[in-house]
Amino acid sequence: MIRTQIQLTEKQSRRIRALAREKGVSLAEAIRRCIDESLVDGARDRTTLFEHAEQVVGAFKDRSKASDLSSQHDRHLAKAYE
Known about the structure:
By secondary structure, the chain is mainly α. It has helices spanning 10-23, 27-42, 46-56, 73-80. Helix 1 (10-23) packs across helix 2 (27-42).
């Protein structure tokens, strides 16, 4: 193992210590687990990303009742950011 020193905010320290107590592990182990989870989530492959995107397709109502979304998506997107 490599020894490392980090600084946490008060809130981060309280939350990670509470998590360690809840899981019954040391503070160092809780931090390592959080890092591992973060690195796995950040390294999702394209297939997983597409699967997640497919889950939201059609999940939201079109308030403007647009019927030309496939051909005019750029215009609608620009309008949404106005």
